[in-house]
């Protein structure tokens, strides 16, 4: 595990832990232990090198730029998902000898029907563009590149069209298991709603969007481990299998032999999750040793499972579910002699640092929820799901519907509990503090002392203070694709201002679909990671959806004090309808030239007359932040830009957020020369259909020798400073300017 940390996650921490471990082994002065330790270190390193070499080889095959290709793909039905008019999943490309992500939109009903009726592994011809998966463009955003690398996937294919070829006639064990998984999941689709979600989620490892929406409270209450297929689920299923075949008078040795063979198959059927791998490995170890009339401790079994897991895939250990599974299973082993209350508290303490590192939130009812629902889930819910699923095969629909209603009531109660006050946005703890807290809890399990409890509280308090009272301030340009969203946070969180929210172009549309706000996974994820749950000011430049479309996400999930809109936009009925559900939660304020944004460094320099929030009405903000003068232009056009320098002839800035994503309708050369910026920020989507930024605008910047930093090329842009002195720029993908 230490080697894996040194190679993949945090090189400094990994190397330090490695040195401390070697020093400890050397100080013991036991020759054979030293030799064994060195060998146990070299073997994983060898496996890591081989594994990384395989990933590098896959990367070399993929073109460096997005390339149009026609390929033959092997598609397993359980690896593909159809969602309305789009599809996505994983396919195998024989020519490239690797699996890739695939996604696309249906051209017609025939294409959709083809995938909906796909029930066996088949070959397709696919046309589209192939490229390497990008790393997350924003700090603290889920990193699809890193996650997929842990599954051996490095590329994605944007499919423009596909054509069915033939069924795969190779009846390999893998294909048979995947076909079986699909048929079983397809059968589960006929179940009532709540029972269907539970069966798919905790038996087949397929958490649908319905599952995530229906059980949002599970994540908030820290109960997500109950819905991750792991030890408890495998224990139940092994027990059920053993009971059934024992009843049929099969010998115990025969049953164990079948379990050894079938558990790897179930691993695939249940989605091959990282936490499930741990449970299957430990079960296989136990059964194998039993066959050999050998035994070792549960802790030895846990340690062997960790080592085998790392040899199979060293990146698994950095997945949230895997970390939680191994830590909780270790906690269960170490606390086996503790009482129920003490055990529950210690298990919560050992999981809390990991949860905060990945999720950033903690509900004060988490401890109570775990005390109540872990035994309830174990004794009632999981068996009830298995019973309901089994009864469905015998068409006992009345009993199945009763079970479904019972699960629905359980869901409602969980969400009601999660909706109570007490959800705290803590933020992302420093990785050093996380490690120290976990080690401290392990010492607490050994012996609970006042000193150890106080030290644990001190570590948490230090992490909390570092997050919520930062010495530095920042200006962030989030990568929200084709849109704008900026954060201005002053040191010690004295004020927090959001300029625009980003969003998709259907904000004012009448789509019947439930809106999906990308801010939940981009800007809001970052805000939670830095401990922000309140926003003093949301300044909206104008009405366009790519600037204000995600406003409802912020209003529903964060405490917003004031929303500033350009003068007259409060008469825009389309905008008002969208914010109507939240209208009583904040002040809605018109902003015009000469106004000051309360509790912020900004003054308004535009608009100068009433409008409805169109491009020419954009709210333009000017302020001094971190030793630099900044101006944020919204989507203001050239004509209005010239009016600003007429009204403010001595206006000079250091940094400008270019108007309209770098379009040629903004950034008039006269305006740029007059305000004389040194740095220009551009927020625009990659490969956007408007071809922003326009070459004319780029040429204007070059003639003025202005440094351009773009979210399009650099991902999220962050400027950090202290004591209101000039700081430095950094970006998610590379250092851009200092």
List keywords for this structure.
738 residues; alpha/beta; 5 domains; eight-stranded mixed β-sheet; six-stranded mixed β-sheet; 17% strand; disordered N terminus
Which helices and strands, and how do they pair?
Blueprint: H1 2-9, H2 11-28, H3 31-61, E1 67-75, E2 80-83, E3 86-93, E4 98-105, H4 109-116, E5 122-132, H5 144-149, E6 155-167, H6 173-188, H7 193-202, H8 209-214, H9 216-220, H10 231-247, H11 252-269, H12 274-291, H13 298-312, H14 320-334, H15 340-359, E7 361-363, H16 366-393, H17 397-418, E8 423-425, H18 431-446, H19 450-468, E9 472-477, E10 486-489, E11 496-499, H20 523-529, E12 534-539, H21 545-548, H22 551-557, E13 559-566, H23 573-579, E14 587-591, E15 602-606, E16 620-625, E17 628-632, H24 638-647, E18 655-657, H25 669-675, E19 679-682, H26 695-703, E20 707-710, H27 711-714, E21 717-722, E22 728-731
Parallel strand pairs: 4-6, 11-12, 12-13, 13-14, 17-18, 18-19, 19-20
Antiparallel strand pairs: 1-5, 2-3, 3-4, 5-6, 7-8, 9-10, 9-21, 10-11, 15-16, 16-17, 21-22
* Helix and strand composition category: alpha/beta
Distance between the termini: 37 Å
What about the largest sheet?
8 strands, mixed
Query: Which word captures the global form?
Result: globular
Taking pLDDT < 50 over at least 5 consecutive residues as the criterion, the unreliable ranges are: 2-8, 507-511
Number of structural units classed as domains: 5
Name given to the CATH architecture of the largest domain: 4-Layer Sandwich
Strand content: 15-25%
Going by CATH, the homologous superfamily of the largest domain would be: Ribonuclease Z/Hydroxyacylglutathione hydrolase-like
Subcellular location: Cell membrane
GO cellular component, one term: plasma membrane
Protein name: Late competence protein ComEC, DNA transport
Keywords: Cell membrane, Membrane, Transmembrane, Transmembrane helix
